[in-house]
Amino acid sequence: HPDGSLYVSGGEEAVGFINEQIAAAADAGATIVYTQDWHPESTPHFAKDGGIWPVHCVADSWGAAFHDHLDVIDGPVIHKGSGGEDGYSAFTVRDPVTAEETPTGLAEELRARGIESVVVVGLATDYCIKETALDGVRLGFATTVLADGIRAVNLAPRDGARAVALMASTGITVF
């Protein structure tokens, strides 16, 4: 949301494309998984508590809600960062102090459903999308990122482009 503390420029422009992908996946009978940053009010993830990010996506706040125009239909929702950890990947969360990683349970749920491939869209290319896609490949899922459905934070110029190049170099299909 443009009024949010961690607004991703152009993020709202991806919503229409993402909705098209959701509809196509639903029509094909695919499982659609949603993720949300779902942070506590204080976490080492936030700059005020020693991290790098402004306070954002606090659980049960308007900032953590899905975009108003996103078509959210039935499917699991993975809340990321709810225990104060960095919630970049949909597959794992990382303690920002110890760097210890913990599975979110997504890989197990996908395997239980017989799912072998994932398609990733959303925000932000250079953090959550990149880490989710890299974890997807590392965990053995054929992973595709749809470029029209992602946008980058770009804390440093070209972070998004570097993330796309890294993903493409690790066996992730990006188009």
Task: Kindly describe this structure.
The chain is α/β, with parallel strands linked by helices and 175 residues long. It has one domain: Rossmann fold (3-Layer(aba) Sandwich). It is 26% helix and 19% strand. It contains four helices and seven strands, in the order H-E-E-E-E-H-E-H-E-H-E. A three-stranded parallel beta sheet has the order 5-6-7. A two-stranded parallel sheet has the order 1-2. Strands 3-4 form a two-stranded antiparallel ribbon. Strand 3 and strand 4 form a beta hairpin. Helix 3 runs parallel beside helix 4. The radius of gyration is 15 Å and the shape is globular. The model has no long low-confidence stretch (mean pLDDT 96).
Write the layout of secondary structure elements.
Layout: H1 15-27, E1 34-37, E2 77-80, E3 92-94, E4 101-103, H2 106-112, E5 117-123, H3 125-138, E6 142-151, H4 159-169, E7 173-174
Parallel strand pairs: 1-2, 5-6, 6-7
Antiparallel strand pairs: 3-4
